[in-house]
What we know:
- This protein is an alpha+beta fold.
- The protein folds into two domains: 4-137, MutM-like, N-terminal (N-terminal domain of MutM-like DNA repair proteins, Alpha-Beta Barrel); 143-285, Helicase, Ruva Protein, domain 3, CATH 1.10.8.
- Helix content is 29%, strand content 19%.
- It is built from nine helices and ten strands.
- Helix 1 (4-17) packs parallel to helix 6 (200-221) and helix 5 (177-187) packs across helix 6.
- The model is unreliable at 282-287 (pLDDT under 50).
- Pfam families: Fapy_DNA_glyco, H2TH, zf-FPG_IleRS.
- It comes from Actinoalloteichus caeruleus DSM 43889.
- InterPro entries: DNA_glyclase_Znf_dom_DNA_BS, FPG_cat, FPG_N, H2TH_FPG, Ribosomal_uS13-like_H2TH, Znf_DNA_glyclase/AP_lyase, Znf_FPG/IleRS.
Amino acid sequence: MPELPEVEAIAHHLRQHAVGRTVRRVDVASPTVLKTVEPTWSALVGREVSGVDRHGKFLDVRCSGLSLVAHLARAGWLRWQDVLPAAPPRPGRGPLALRAHLGNPGEGPGFDLTEAGTRKGLAVWIVTDPLEVPGIATLGPDALDLGEEELTELLAGRTERVKTVLTRQSLLAGIGNAYSDEILHRARLSPFAVAGRLSGDEVARLSRSMREVLADAVRRTEGQEVARLKGEKRAGMRVHGRTGLPCPVCGDQIREVSYSDRSLQYCPTCQTGGRPLADRRLSRLLR
Length: 287
């Protein structure tokens, strides 16, 4: 799933390549991706791309008074092309959901919003104000803007696991499953630790780790070609997606806790005092 660093990198790419260009045509290959009815997608045509913003994990392409807001969900992506094909795409064929021509079709550039797999979560809104998008209206503070004092206030009294707090967008915007694993590993904290019970030193480590992991990822990805961002994200991970491999800090084996639709990775030596966490999926199989 694209998270704060990847969405920021995509926004940076569009600021360099899309701003100042005019929307010439919009092709909707998957109508279900559109979550708004008015204004229609055709209202974007003839408008100049005036800016690109990021709200948590939402991408906001501003077009002279309207915003095309996209949430890439788990398997969505934005693909930039210097020359888009002129022929309209066939509806419902392949991963393409929406195509925006920023030049004459068949001659100029633009971008595709695509989604792999059968579980569709990619969503697009055409709005006059990004706050009309329910997910943006309820976002917590951006993870890159949160200082230690604000994080201390946010965690105070919370009974959820710290992993849950980091990934709940209404509390903290921009962090998903992958970067929360990386942040907790660098902070030497168990993902199952209760957020409101962290000591002052643990909160300070968490705050510092959050800034360092996200800022490092933004620096690595900003300026990269959009097509290379997924590989750059995987290459920068120390624990996430590395189950069974040695921890780069201590050499212990990276372990996993699996859920029905996701998993988390951690290092027992670095994060849980050497104790493996209970994997409920495995526990059920052993009954």
